[in-house]
C-alpha cells in the first residue's frame, strides 16, 4: 500500500497546503497592518515564501522532466527578484517623503 | 563573448526540449534556429556577463553556496515571524535605524542588502557605498537589536568575501 | 489527483480578491503599487496551477515570460515615482 506514488502525493499536498496558508496570511497582513512600511514587510516576506513552496510542490509532482527545469528557473528568479522589487518600492516611498508610523498614532 | 554564446545556447536547448522527442529529434534545421537566436542574444548583450577578476573565485563560490542554504532557513523563519505578528501574538512597533559596516565591494554590499530583506523583521531602504552605511526599517526592537548589537550577519558576509566584518 | 490543485486555485483567487481591496481603498499611490505587485505575482502562480489542472504543459513558458515582464514593470514605476521623470537627458 505504501508505494512511491502515494509518498509523492502526500509530499505534494503538504507543500501546497503550506504555500496556500502563507499566501493568505500575506494578503490578510496587507489589509490589517496600520502603515505602508509594515504592509511591505508582510508582502515582501510572506508572499515570496508562499510562492516558492507552491512551485516546489508542483516540481515534486512532476518527477524528473524538462518542465521541472523550467519551474526551477521560475523559483530561482523569484528568490532574487522578490526582495529587489520590495526594496525599490520602499526606497521610492522614503525619498518622496512618506512618514513612518510610530506606536500611538492614528491609523493611516 | 564565446562564454555568453555558450550559455545562451545551453539555455535555448534546455527550454525547447520535450520529453517524448528527447535527443533523437534534433536535426540540423532545428539546431540552426537555436544558433541564430543565441547569436542575436550574444551580439546585443555580451557586456553583461563578464567574469570578475577577483582572486580565489572558486573558494568564494563554494562559501557563497553554503551561505544560500542558511538564507533559505532564514526565509522560513521570517515568514513565520510575520504570520505571528499578523495574528496578534507579538506587537508591531516600527522604527528606522542606521549603521555602518566595513564591506566595500559591489557584490558584498548587494548580498548583504538582500540578506537584510530576507531576515525576520528588517528591510533595507538605502545604501551609501562610500562608507558602507545602511538605512534599515525594522518592525520591532528584537530584530533591530539582532542587526546592530549582535552583528552575526556582518561576520558571515565578511567571511565569504574575506573582508573584515 | 486534480482536487488539491483546484482547491489551491480557489484559495489564490481569494488572495487576489483581498488584495484588490487595498488597491481600491489605499490612501495614496504607493499602497496601490504594492497591491499591483502582489496581484501580478499571484497571477503567475495561478497560471502554473492552471497548467496542472488541464494536464498540458503549455502555460509554464508563458508564466516564465510574464514573471520577468511584471518585475521590470514594477521597477520602472518605482523609479519614475522617485525621480519625477523617466530618463535624464
Describe this structure in words.
The complex is a heterotrimer of chains A (108), B (165) and C (89). Chain A is an all-alpha fold. Chain A has helices at residues 4-32, 36-62, 66-96. Chain B folds into two domains: 2-45, no CATH class; 57-161, no CATH class. The two termini of chain B are 36 Å apart. Chain C has one domain. In chain C, helix 2 (29-53) packs antiparallel against helix 3. Helices cover 82% and strands 0% of the residues of chain C. The radius of gyration of chain C is 16 Å and the shape is flat. Chain C has three helices and no strands. The mean pLDDT of chain C is 89. The interface between A and C is large, with 43 and 43 residues.
Give a topology summary.
The complex is a heterotrimer of chains A (108), B (165) and C (89).
Chain A: H1 4-32, H2 36-62, H3 66-96
Helix pairs in contact in A: 1-2, 2-3
Chain B: H1 2-15, H2 28-45, H3 57-86, E1 95-100, H4 106-118, E2 122-128, E3 133-138, H5 141-150, H6 152-161
Chain C: H1 3-25, H2 29-53, H3 59-83
Helix pairs in contact in C: 1-2, 2-3
Give the key terms.
heterotrimer; B: 165 residues; mainly alpha; 2 domains; 3-stranded antiparallel sheet; 6 helices; 3 strands; 58% helix; 12% strand; elongated; C: 89 residues; 3 helices; flat
What's the order of the H and E elements of chain B? Answer: HHHEHEEHH
In terms of per-residue confidence, which ranges of chain C show pLDDT below 50 for 5 or more consecutive residues?
none
The residue-averaged pLDDT of chain B reads: 79
Question: Strand order within the widest sheet of chain B?
Answer: 1-3-2
Global structural class of chain C: mainly alpha
How far apart the termini of chain B lie comes to: 36 Å
- Relative helix content of chain C: over 70%
Amino acid at each position: 500500500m505504501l508505494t512511491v506514488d502515494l509518498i509523492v502525493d502526500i509530499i505534494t499536498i503538504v507543500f501546497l497546503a503550506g504555500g496556500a496558508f502563507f499566501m493568505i496570511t500575506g494578503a490578510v497582513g496587507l489589509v490589517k497592518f496600520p502603515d505602508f512600511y509594515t504592509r511591505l514587510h508582510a508582502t515582501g516576506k510572506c508572499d515570496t515564501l508562499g510562492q516558492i513552496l507552491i512551485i516546489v510542490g508542483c516540481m515534486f509532482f512532476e518527477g524528473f522532466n524538462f518542465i521541472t527545469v523550467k519551474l526551477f528557473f521560475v523559483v530561482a528568479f523569484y528568490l532574487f527578484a522578490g526582495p529587489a522589487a520590495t526594496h525599490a518600492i520602499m526606497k521610492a516611498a522614503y525619498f518622496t517623503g512618506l512618514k513612518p508610523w510610530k506606536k500611538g498614532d492614528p491609523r493611516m | 563573448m564565446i562564454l555568453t554564446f555558450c550559455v545562451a545556447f545551453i539555455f535555448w536547448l534546455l527550454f525547447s526540449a520535450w520529453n517524448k522527442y528527447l535527443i533523437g529529434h534534433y536535426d540540423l534545421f532545428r539546431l540552426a534556429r537555436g544558433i541564430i537566436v543565441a547569436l542575436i542574444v550574444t551580439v546585443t548583450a555580451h557586456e553583461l556577463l563578464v567574469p570578475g577578476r577577483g582572486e580565489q573565485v572558486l573558494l568564494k563560490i563554494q562559501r557563497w553556496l553554503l551561505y544560500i542554504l542558511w538564507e533559505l532557513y532564514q526565509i522560513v523563519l521570517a515568514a513565520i515571524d510575520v504570520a505571528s505578528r499578523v495574528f496578534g501574538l507579538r506587537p508591531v512597533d516600527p522604527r528606522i535605524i542606521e549603521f555602518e559596516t566595513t564591506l566595500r565591494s559591489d557584490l558584498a554590499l548587494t548580498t548583504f542588502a538582500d540578506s537584510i530583506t530576507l531576515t525576520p523583521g528588517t528591510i533595507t531602504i538605502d545604501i551609501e557605498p562610500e562608507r558602507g552605511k545602511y538605512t534599515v526599517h525594522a518592525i520591532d526592537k528584537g530584530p533591530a537589536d539582532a542587526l546592530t548589537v549582535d552583528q552575526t550577519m556582518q561576520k558571515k558576509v565578511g567571511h565569504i568575501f574575506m573582508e573584515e566584518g | 489527483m486534480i482536487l488539491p490543485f483546484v482547491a489551491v486555485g480557489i484559495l489564490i483567487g481569494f488572495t487576489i480578491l483581498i488584495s484588490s481591496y487595498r488597491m481600491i481603498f489605499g490612501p495614496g499611490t504607493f499602497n496601490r503599487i504594492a497591491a499591483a505587485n502582489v496581484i501580478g505575482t499571484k497571477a503567475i502562480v495561478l497560471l502554473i496551477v492552471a497548467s496542472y489542472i488541464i494536464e498540458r504543459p503549455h502555460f509554464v513558458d508563458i508564466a516564465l515570460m510574464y514573471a520577468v515582464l511584471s518585475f521590470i514593470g514594477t521597477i520602472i514605476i518605482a523609479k519614475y515615482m522617485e525621480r519625477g521623470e523617466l530618463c535624464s537627458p
